[in-house]
Fold these 2 entries.
Entry 1:
Amino acid sequence: MADKRTALFDIHKRMGARLVPFGGWSMPVEYSGIAKEHIAVRAAAGLFDVSHMGEIEVSGSQALALIQAITPNDASRLIDGQAQYSALTTPEGTAVDDLLVYRQSQNRFMLVVNAANIENDLEWIRARNSLGAHVEDISEKTGLLALQGPRAAEILQPLTEMALSGLSSYHFASGQVLGVDALVSRTGYTGEDGFELYFPASESEKLWTAILKAGEPAGLLPAGLGARNTLRLEASLLLYGNDLDRTTSLLEAGLGWIVKLDKGDFVGRDALARQKAEGINKKLAGFVMRGRDIARDHYPVYVNGAEVSHVTSGSPSITLKQNIGLAYLPLAHAAPGTTLEVSVRGRACEAEVVRTPFYKRKDS
Amino acid sequence: MNPQDLQYSTEHEWLRVAGDIGTVGITDHAQSELGDVIFVEFPQVGAKVEAGKTLGTIESVKAVSELFSPVSGEIVEVNKDLLNTPEVVNADPYGKGWLVRIRMEKPAAGLMSADQYAQYIIAA
């Protein structure tokens, strides 16, 4: 099957982006270079086309009840215009997907899910929808741009009547951007301040082109999935399929903060409550390579000569100029300062466990 | 454009011959495909290399790739400047971004001309 394309595919090509297959989509991995785009997001701003992400609308009088039953975070705490990070959990407390829950009104929510999981998630949600909430896949008709970086607000503000200064982290508002109806959310996947804009996919070209033009004097660059990955890893934001999947418990993944055992029953609650009481055996930890060798995804990890794990995400850190990674480590070897060895094409290379996130922006 | 005086391999390395010394680098196409080069792992000076066999590795932000030797011989020099400025491979792949020099055992064989290589990357 041919890879799917976002509404901006032709524009990306015209701009000289390198397009690669990603989760069933043909997506731009870089325009001017991953490092340059990464630095632009940390110092000024970057604009990402992430229209491949899935949006699922859950509405009706039973919408909240359905979301509460299938996600571990407490969606009843959300107010209109607020979003939260959550997941779809298996009965074992592992992750079917990680997602954002947006509360638009008491009876209307939007779930934002990973592109590669849209079909699976829909099937999973519908199979548990005995309450009869309305569940609709609006992915195809929804465009999504992420404007990320310290100068994102000053770039976006002149393009909208909405007062962005009143929009705090994990809150959103509906209004117009350049005359296009949009949901503007103060969220992102880079570790910087920024916004994610949801709008009718047919308006993608208009918004993409106008935002890039408006942001040019401030140093805004189009940015691809390559920089998105190096940025999110520095901020220790998990990537589903690498750092999180159906074999990893949310507690092991360090996502205990989205597990609200006291909110009422949900899929996986019993297993997560048991794990919490008994304690976990391994956890996702960050490490920094001591030498110049780069740990890549799937490289084996050793402690005292014994293979204990593998790298779930590994990359050079462009901001820190070190080589960083994440791995599930036995608790005994997960403390900061612990020496690990990462097997880099057969050579044992030293690494040190460190606290995450690797990078935290100064004003946060 | 790919310089006319070089020979090219199917693995996207170039070879410049002067006497029995061959200088090897990666092509402009290869550096563009790799993206930002951040680390080059060289063979030892004095090591024997064989045509078509691995010569080292080159790492970009997003991936690691093997380098293959276009000729057989002995490594006589590696481009140490790249240890501190690996981005030169992207900026000047046919000049300051050269990788190694090899004392060739015999003349290179089975490589492409610049025009053949240009056709090769269009077809690939």
Entry 2:
Amino acid sequence: MLSIRNIVKQYAGHRALDDVSIEVKSGQVFGLLGPNGAGKTSLIRIINQITAPDSGEVFFNGEKLNQSHINQIGYLPEERGLYKKMEIGEQMIYLARLKGLSRDEANRRLKIWFDKLGMETWWKKKIEELSKGMQQKAQFVATILHEPELIILDEPFSGFDPVNAEIIKDEILELNKKGATILFSTHRMESVEELCDSIALIHKSHKILDGTVKGIRNSYRNATYWLEYNGAALSFDGKQPFEVIEETAGDDNEHTIKIKLNADSSSNDVLQYLLPKTRINMLKEVIPSMNEIFIQKVNQIN
Amino acid sequence: MDKILLIIQREYITRVRKKSFIVMIFVVPGLILAMGGAIALIAKNSDELTDKEVVKVIDKSGVFAGKFKDQNNLKFETSTQSLADLKADLKKDESLSALEIPVDYAKKNAVKIYSKKKPGITLTQKIQDEMNDIAVSAGMLKNHIDTALLHSIKSDISLDTVEITETGDNKTNLGANIGIGIACAILIYLSLFIYGAQVMRGVIEEKTSRIIEVIISSVKPFQLMLGKIIGVGLVGLTQFSAWIILSIISTKIAGHAMSSGGMLGALAVLQTIPFGKVLICFIFYFLGGYLLYSALFAAVGSAVDSETETQQFMFPITLPLLFTYILSVSILFRAPDSTLAVWLSIIPFTSPVAMMLRMPFGVPDWQLALSMVLLVITFIFTTYVAARIYRVGVLMYGKKASYKELLKWFFYKE
């Protein structure tokens, strides 16, 4: 639904985005990853038509991105903010109307959301009377009230306590189930693995990695396994179908080692080899986490 | 377009609903009335405000003794005491002063006045005037000129001004013209600042509260800026309309309450001024000047992170206004048709204040038209410039804005 093609954005003195292309499919939860200053926010601003790229194009549902798409996008910026002196109900309705909703419709939907998130009593409160977490919740509602097709969330969980972060996460997933495409930028990797279908990794204004989370992690598998066994410590004579690459200090009875399979052997070969020799507690493949991949990739470039 | 209307609506309603706005509607006319009353009262009783003063006169020449005329708060007494004795008295009583007139009083600085506090300029002026009169009379007597005849010839002239117009001679009152001219100039100067600053503060508020990014993901920065400027401008118009209506009502009531001769006379004088024209021009120049300056104020607001940083940009922007304002209330009202006044009333950055000052005295139509057209062209131009700076500025944080930086922003592509 969102196709970003060869975007270049030049600021005085530095290039924020250099030939970045990303495809986001309809119904996906897409993670835009990258260290601080990588160019994520620049890209998000271009999608929101806050700034325009120097070259390259963005397509929204096959059409070239234009003003008519604004009402179909909901945007939660990293730096949150609302009018401090304005009553919250009125403010939510104002923001929704700016996105093309009628006053009555905005009112109706807002009531539903306020009920759902336990905010009924806030309606007449001014933003400055609310706690930071409450403000964030209100702003989240403002972002999605007009039921956009594409929801762009910049670091959505920063500033939430764990309870509210969980609530917001569930809401995001529910919106996704109802058909909204979610694009969110973060550098918190645990939420990426939990939420995202696909990701793109941006570093120093270049896209250095993209694909489905599963695919990427699979491509980083390298036949390494954790092996845990009970009994006397084994000694290997070189005929085993793997080599030991790491040995952790276990107690007398329990040992954990990291092994790398030989080229033409499988985990079954390992089991077969070991079964007569010891009691196996666990054999688990080491699949690098997104976090590890992220760090590895970024360091490679540096 | 719908979105601009929404923004205008929000900017307008949030301001008009504020308690301070509603209070201002009633307080300001009240204050002006009270101030006018107080000034009238003080002017009437100004003599009573100063203390009674007694001047002891030691006259060695014999020309002046007994000839001083007492005034409201000034009493002359011929004294036979010596200066030394008098000085002792002076130390005890502040309202007392001693005037020592030597025999050869005509010499420069021969006459001396002694008192505990420094004598006021009006006191010394009065005494000088009286002494001159007395000395002249004495001199005439000496030379056998009949002073009685002289007094009968002496006149007290004051001018009555009549302005010749197409419709007939108008009795004009320079005082009323000056009063209204200055009042309009002050009012327009203050309101340009007050509402311009409101726009700027609104922009800074949006920037520091970071809501700006949410808003401009829904509307174009230009729409937001224009909506804000128009919204705040409407607040200003509402305020003025309320004041005008209130003052019409109150003068009607006042007119009924006291139909004394003085009041009617004052009203008759005021009626010689083309109020309708002044009012229409006031609204025009308020709007024109406001649009011109508020766009610049908005650009300044977008370039900074907090209100304290605005100073360096505010000064050059407000300089032409301040300059015209100070000139207007100090010099120009005495010469509303001078070359300087005419030029200032045509140059767009200064015309709102200068033209309003000139209005009650009558301004040639071609000057008015030229000034208005230039004002409109200029505010379109400043709005364009401001919008280009604004669209970049609102997204810039933590960058110390300089003029060079602003220029760069102006040339940024979208």
